[in-house]
Design brief:
202 residues; alpha+beta; two-stranded antiparallel sheet; 5 helices; 21% strand; globular
Amino acid sequence: MDIKLAAVIIHDIKNALGVLEGELHEMTMNPTREQALLAHETCASLQDKLIGFLTLYKAASQGLIARVDAVNPEDFLNGLVRNHPNPRSEIGIVVDASNMPVLGFFDENLIGLALEAALQNATRFARRQIDVGCMKDDAGFLVFSIRDDGTGLGSKEEKPSTGLGMELCRAIAQAHRKGDNSGSVSLFDRPDGGAEFQLRVP
């Protein structure tokens, strides 16, 4: 794992722990349901950061092994969206079932981890809607996509991203191998606005 990336991630986790400590301290003074929900969201985000960091560490030190199984992509994506903790209730997350194959072969735990990271990223930038889909391309690769209707790549943030999500997605995609082919990820601007993330597995 890149030393600079690891340092940035650890610093980000330290900051998140500081935020959580402040939220919990506030709850001891004047507990409310809203404060409890906020602290819970911070805990969930911190847990995701730690899981992502440990997965990347394993990929760098031991290599990731994808445990591929036959999975129904539509059921898989519906479950992903249903369990996603969406902090912005004004944003709709829709599973686009058009052109979706009945079966796909992938490690649903690893792909779920990658797509959850990408979905969290899209939630930060979307205005009203995020579309989640899956299709097979001409080369026979299974392509998962997450599309938002935000301002596209290069959007300014008050708190810049650490890059953990994209590195995690890349490591998970590359763990999926078939012959000489391995998975890949891409992130690009959409012609009609917003950004699109794609994860391809053979």
